[in-house]
Amino acid sequence: TGLLTSHEAAVGCYGDQAEFCREELQLLDNEGRAVITQHKVSHSCEGKEKAIAVINVYCPRADPEKPERKQFKLQFYKLLQCRAEAILKDGSHVIVLGDINTSHQRIDHCDPSDNEDFDENPGRKWLKLFLHGIRQEEEENDQEHAEFSQVTSTPPGHGGKFVDTFRYFHPTRANAFTCWSTLTGARQTNYGTRIDYIFADHRLASEQFVAADIMPEVEGSDHCPVWGQLSCSLVPSTKPPPLCTRYLPEFAGKQQKLSHFFVKAEQNSSLPEHRNPLPGSQEEEEKRENLNPTAQKSGQKRLSNVLKGKKTKTVKSSSNSQGSLLSFFKPTVTNVVADTPVRQCELLSSAEENGQQTPITRLTPQPAAKKGSSSGFWKSVLHGPPPPPSCKVHKEPCVLRTVKKDGPNMGRQFFVCARPQGHASNPDARCNFFEWVDKGKGGVWS
């Protein structure tokens, strides 16, 4: 929109924005969905320099649960076309590329028959007018063009000014998709859509593009890369672009050259400085214990005081201090004389030294729990996941899913076929098995 531009070397050419109010323009640019750069190229045949503006976009997604985003997406398309055609009119070539978030034709969708109003999608209608080669029956439908007068600035009866470079070179290739659902594993069955494009103005596509394709073999995202190759050569710029970080105030004069990272650093042979520990630190306590090991006998004095009947704070051993969670489900044991786990012989010898006949309570060790008893206890307290049924077609165990959408079934769980999503005609794809989890049978596992 130009509202957020803060430098003088911007590409410019914003077109007629009279149909947008300032608030709409601000909202459309606030999400940072476009990066526009301009480059100079030299045509190999003509020997002339020509400018190419590259509009890299991430178009909004029309969330079915948010109707306002559908209108936002159409407004973004409208502004994108306004800007691209204005730059083109100024004499520069234009490339629009990125995630357009709409599949153009039925051949670009894995299952267009699943959507009854496929051709009536507003975003798809905009693409048909934005791209060169509009169908004749649409040109003759004046009512339809009147409906799109608010979505596109292209006059009715004319084809678009841009070309889908992939279809320019591969007009009939099917199953060429660039995006797949990761939730359903649809990439394994190539059940996706082609929503990532490289659009170029018609002259640039016909004169300079030599190839264009997709790269579905490149993984790491729910999208795959797309690429295009031009025959023209780039003309180097005399200076970095205005938004280069070297011009930002917080970085100016502070950056190092790459060569500085390969210079051998000088080794400091001096001994490290002596650190004074903080008072009361753990390091100081450890040093004190090492210098005065007799202080460790204080534990024996505490034991004598206990046997004499004095009230003294007992010291718990640090070993095995963390009890089992099962102990919280057992009755509490009372009347324990000694809290410190000292061997029985030590208690007897201390009592004899003091010449007292203090009765000593013998602590009988508890027998170890039988193996498997704890697992049986947990099974009686907590319910595990319900046993998965087998799907009817593949006879394979199903997977457990949870409803995440708002509604009466929010949070409910169900079983579906474990295979990845795919076309109904694909035997390796997920079958239509579906079964709700019955809370009365094993409970719900979350």
UniProtKB/TrEMBL annotation:
Its EC number is 3.1.-.-. Keywords: Cytoplasm, DNA damage, DNA repair, DNA-binding, Endonuclease, Hydrolase, Magnesium, Manganese, Metal-binding, Mitochondrion, Nuclease, Nucleus, Zinc, Zinc-finger. Its cofactor is Mg(2+); Mn(2+). It comes from the Eukaryota. Mg(2+) binds at residues 99, 101, 222-223. It catalyses: Exonucleolytic cleavage in the 3'- to 5'-direction to yield nucleoside 5'-phosphates. Residues 391-440 form the GRF-type domain. The active site is at 58, 99 (proton donor/acceptor), 223 (proton acceptor). The record marks 223 as: Interaction with DNA substrate. One of its GO terms (molecular function) is DNA binding. Residues 266-322, 349-375 are annotated as: Disordered. It is an enzyme of class 3 (hydrolase). Initiates repair of AP sites in DNA by catalyzing hydrolytic incision of the phosphodiester backbone immediately adjacent to the damage, generating a single-strand break with 5'-deoxyribose phosphate and 3'-hydroxyl ends. NCBIfam families: xth. This is DNA-(apurinic or apyrimidinic site) endonuclease. It comes from Tetraodon nigroviridis.
